[in-house]
Each structure stands twice: as structure tokens, then as C-alpha cells.
């Protein structure tokens, strides 16, 4: 099972056929802090999956920062996730340079 490390927490990544909230509305993704699980709806087109996964990762980061004021602001979380994913898509060389630089001791 794939792991996603967000700060001190290792989340288990999984894809599910059905994903919904307590009101029965379909979700594309969900983060469960108590269980350290990030679930994604199975079969999402890859660009949608990337954005949704980054959305859940932003939730995890804001939770680590104890910024519930921002973490409960879904438009903020979504806009930040979209901008990060779009930056990575538009600047693959810089994204790889950042990864390479932070992995250099
Ligand atoms: Zn959200």
C-alpha cells in the first residue's frame, strides 16, 4: 500500500469504488486524520485525480499547522491545490530541480 508522508504522519493511500460523505454526496477524495488514510474515488481521470490528491494533501498540511480556520475553507484549500498542481504541470523542469535540490545533502 502506498504511503503519503505529510509532516510527521504517514497516510495510507487507497482508491475506493464508492466514496461519499455523511450526507450521501459523492466525494472525489477524503482524508481521515484519525486513521491516517487518504481515499480517492476509483476511476477519476488522471488530471482530476492529481488535483483531488493535492487537495487532500493541503488539508493534511493545514491540519499539521493547526490552521482549522483555513482548513475548513474549502474554496481556499481547492484554489491552493489547483495552483500547486498547475505550477508543477507548467514548470516540470523547475519542479524536478526543486526535488533534486532538496534531496542533495
Ligand atoms: Zn476539502
Keywords:
alpha+beta, binds zinc ion
**Beta-sheet strand percentage?**
15-25%
The counted number of beta strands is: 4
| Element pattern in H and E | EEEEHHHH
Bound molecules: zinc ion
CATH topology: Arc Repressor Mutant, subunit A
| Overall mean confidence score, pLDDT | 96
Low-confidence stretches: none
Kindly, what is the distance between the CA atoms of the first and last residues, rounded to a whole number of angstroms? 28 Å
Assembly classification: single chain
CATH architecture: Orthogonal Bundle
Provide the structure class.
alpha+beta
Going across the biggest sheet, name each strand in turn: 1-2-4-3
CATH top level? Mainly Alpha
Whole-number count of domains: 1
Q: What Rg, in angstroms, do the CA atoms define? A: 14 Å
The shape, in one word, is globular
Number of helices: 4
Helical residues, percent: 40-55%
Largest pleated sheet: 4 strands, mixed
Task: Characterise this structure.
The chain has four helices and four strands; from the N terminus they run ββββαααα. By secondary structure, it is α+β, with helices and mostly antiparallel strands. It has one domain: Arc Repressor Mutant, subunit A, CATH 1.10.10. It has a four-stranded mixed β-sheet, with helices on one face. Strand 3 and strand 4 form a beta hairpin. The radius of gyration is 14 Å and the shape is globular. The protein starts with a strand and ends with a helix. Bound molecules: zinc ion.
Amino acid at each position: 500500500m502506498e504511503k503519503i508522508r505529510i509532516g510527521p504522519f504517514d497516510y495510507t493511500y487507497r482508491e475506493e469504488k464508492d466514496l461519499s460523505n455523511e450526507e450521501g454526496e459523492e466525494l472525489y477524495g477524503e482524508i481521515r486524520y484519525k486513521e491516517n488514510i487518504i481515499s480517492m474515488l476509483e476511476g477519476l481521470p488522471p488530471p482530476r485525480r492529481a488535483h483531488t490528491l493535492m487537495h487532500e494533501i493541503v488539508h493534511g498540511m493545514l491540519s499539521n499547522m493547526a490552521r482549522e480556520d483555513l482548513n475548513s475553507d474549502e474554496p481556499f484549500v481547492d484554489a491552493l491545490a489547483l495552483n500547486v498542481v498547475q505550477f508543477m504541470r507548467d514548470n516540470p523542469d523547475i519542479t524536478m530541480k526543486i526535488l533534486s535540490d532538496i534531496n542533495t545533502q
